[in-house]
Structure formats: C-alpha cells, structure tokens
Amino acid sequence: MQLTDSGASHTDWSMIAQATEADEQVAGDALERLVRRYWAAVYAYIRRTGRDVHEAADLTQGFVCDIIISRRLCDYADPQRGRFRTLLLSSVKNYLRETYRRDRKRSLEIDGPPLPLEELPTETSTSETPDEAFCYQWSATLIRQVLTDVKASCEKDGLVAHWTVFEHRVVRPMLFDEQPTEHATLVEMLNLKDEPQAANMMITVKRRFARALYQEIGRTVIDPEHIEDELNELLRDLERPR
Amino acid sequence: MSMVTRQQLSDVLRSAQEISANPSMAAADWLAHDIDPNRRSAVELLTDANVSVENLRKAKDVYKTMRILGESSTDRRVAARLYAATIGAGLVHRGKRISRQSDAALKRGLEALQADMDMPEPLRRLAEASLILLDGNS
C-alpha cells in the first residue's frame, strides 16, 4: 500500500538528515515537512504554558525560526541518543526559558517555513500540563495524518465504499462521538450486497489503518523494532492518571 | 479534531495495536463489537447467556461472510470456528437452532472448534456444551 504522495523519503530521520544538507533547496523542503509535522505539538505545549493564542503562535513561529532554522536544531539530532520529539520538547522548554529571560517580543517579519495557522486547534484543555498537551497534540497529528493517508490509499485502490463504511462506523463514532450509521443505511447508500459485507469492509480498512499507523510511527524511530515501544510510550502518556 | 479527548485518541491507538497483535481474532472481535457495542470481543458476545437470538443471527452472518471473504487463511479458519460458535451459542444459551445445517455438518464444525487450541478456551467449552446438547437430542 502506497501511503505517501511522492517519491521523496518521508521518514523523520531521513527528513532530519536532509534538513542538514548543503543543498538549500533539499534542506528547505525537508525543514518545511518537519515543521508541518511537529508544529501543532509545539504550539499545544506553548499554549499550555499559559500563553494566549496569538502569543503561542508567535512563539511557535519564533521557535521554528530561531532554533530549528537559525541554530540548526537538526544538526544536534542523533537517533542513537533518543527520539526526535524528545529533543524537540526539551528545545522548546529551553527556548521558552530564554525568551522569558529576554522578555522581548519576537518580530513576525522573520522568513521561515510558513506555519499552517489555519489549522490551529481552537481550544486546549485547561487541566493538562504542557508536556501532556504536547503528547496529546502529537498523537492527534499522527492519527490525522494516518487517516488522511488511508483515505487517499482507499480512493487510489478503488475502495471508496470501504472507506465510507469505516468512516461512518468507526472514525466518526470513535473520534467525534457520532452515532454509527446503521448498516442497513450504508448498504442502501453504497449499493452493497448485505450488512455482513458492510461489516467486513470495515475490517479491511481498519487493518489498513493499523498498518499505516505502524508505518507512520516507523518514520519516527530509527529501528522498526522500536515501533511497538514508541506506541506504548504514547499510550502511557495519553492514559496517565491526571 | 480539536475536541477529541485523550481517551478517544488512546482508544484509536489501542485498537490498531490489537489488530496488529492478532489480526484475525481482533477482526472477529471488532465484528462482535460492531454488533453489540457493549461487548468488546467475540468471546464476550458468544458466551453471554443473555445474548439475543437476533444478535446471534447477525454474528453468524458476518462470520459466514468473513469465512468466504477473509483476507488470509487464518481469517477464514477463525471465521469458520466462530460461525460454528454462534450456532452453538444459540443452542446453549437460547435453546434455539439458528442454522439449517445437518447434525453431522454442525457436529463437524463444533468438533473442529473444540479441537482448535488457537481458539479461546471459553469458545472451546461452548463447543463442548453444544455437542453434548446435540448428542442428547439425537
């Protein structure tokens, strides 16, 4: 199953390696992909430290420009020394301490990869710590990316009806608290043979989702054997009593 | 997804983990959960003494379809076992035969379930109880 839309390598570690290349075009493209992937988690962390929406967005932009680009954060990333998101999180913390000490506003005129601010989360929970906010947002980004990829792969492979069943029976009920659409309705809407067929179509996409999730997490670790550990780490963070 | 809770994200990740650990049984469990959202697995659904005949018929039909359309041979084997288990559950819990299969065919399916060490123990015991009932009736 092809889950990416270009021939470019999309593992996080290969993106990080590309971001340190001498070729400015390659490095710039890789940086932009990295920023798109991680900005929401960085923003969520900063937001939970008490900054308002605009200040958090400015600081996120500042972190990208000052730390990721100017100070070349990717040069310090080493897969042997741990996860990239751990390095990113500790860098954000240091950056906030620094900016607090300097106590000066960042200029918004700095050039850098554009942040997709139109996708800003509208709300963050008031009870979570900044670290929890980072983990929550990173997990949400991961799941959103995987769902987008799986939907695209279903469309490409002629499984639009399969995706529709999965969306109405699994995605919407699980993530948006919607009532699952009745099988009978889906059978009629999608012109299927019967309800058991619809149920089994759901399983097909659910498996694609699981494979794509493992593949996506695999992009963030250096060794495929660490995928399960990384998934368990995310689950521990999400399920930690609060 | 800004309103999604941590629990919901966790549920999504866990469901992917379950399906990855044991694809065939996890698929069967999902089909059971899809029939009755209060049940998390095929074992829970089929060993519930209060399971409705309607839900057993639905389970029988989805496992029958999975037996044919399953992606792997393990899928199809697990589905065949669960197909027999749903019929057995009808006999044991509701005293009702929800299949038109002959006694001989039904016994073969239940014996295969009972002998399959890869299947959950409660379902194998259900097969054993069903066979006793069938023998008592014949």
Which overall shape of chain B is indicated by the principal axes computed on the Cα atoms? globular
Overall pLDDT level of chain B: 93
The number of distinct structural domains of chain A comes to 2
Class inferred from helices and paired strands of chain B: mainly alpha
Major β-sheet profile of chain B = none
By DSSP, the count of extended strands of chain B is 0
Residues in helix, % of chain B: over 70%
Describe the largest sheet of chain A. Answer: none
Which protein chains make the most extensive interface, counting residues with beta carbons within 8 Å of the other chain's beta carbons? Answer: A-B, 37 and 33 residues
E-strand count of chain A: 0
Structural class of chain A, by secondary structure, is: mainly alpha
Specify the helix fraction band of chain A: 55-70%
**What is the string of helix and strand elements of chain A?**
HHHHHHHHH
Number of helices of chain A: 9
**What does the average pLDDT of chain A come to?**
82
Structural key phrases:
heterodimer; A: 242 residues; mainly alpha; 2 domains; 9 helices; 66% helix; globular; B: 138 residues; 7 helices; 75% helix; 0% strand
